[in-house]
Design a protein that fits this description.
Helix 1 runs antiparallel to helix 4. With 227 residues, the protein is α/β, with parallel strands linked by helices. Helices cover 18% and strands 32% of the residues. The protein has two domains: 66 residues; 105 residues, no CATH class. 29% of the residues are buried. The strands form four sheets. Strands 3, 6, 9, 11, 12 and 14 form a six-stranded parallel beta sheet that branches.
Amino acid sequence: MPYRVVGSATLVPVSEQPSLPGPHDMRASNGDRERFAKVLHDAMAEGRLTVTELEERLDQVYAARTFGELEPLVRDLPNQQLVAYQASLPQPVTATDPARVGGRGTSSSAVAIMSGSERKGHWTIPPTFNAFAMMGGVEIDLTQATFEAAETVIHAFTIMGGIEITVPPDVTVYVTGSGFMGGFSNTVRTQAPPGSPVVRITGMAIMGGVEVKPPKKPKKNKEIQEG
């Protein structure tokens, strides 16, 4: 059996060299999971999946560690082989703004049940944030927030309630949520510069709404001239 030299004294059989992981064994990122989640949301909107099936598969998507665990969740949907392949490709890594990324998350959730809840001002959002509103309202303002990681996922779920998320122009946002007798609204159109924090917003709005919007423009002071 052929051997290879490790260091200066140890011989290891060549056949025992660790093999590189295949595409199915590659670790999935939060962005990869969101791409698969969008496929499932779209399938539900087209009538290919029921709400219950969507919820079951989304639970598996966010629990998946590898592409091998993600791919079976879209295998029975049309034209998803390309989506799975593209998600398995290495994603470009860019430097992030140190002024916006860093520190530990100060709050990981906001819940409003027949009430209100808000996260705004100077705070740090963790890589995963959960917002839930039932017959109430949640307000999330990222204008002055910092981010624990370069990429953040906000799971927004509302039942007969509303969730409002304010995203400033120096943050790139992707919205993939679905609605059932409700919906997701996104009026943030600005693509942030390369290396800016990325926020992915997903979830479900049932008889309610999730609104993603830019910050309000400051009002100009009007000079009152006395005649």
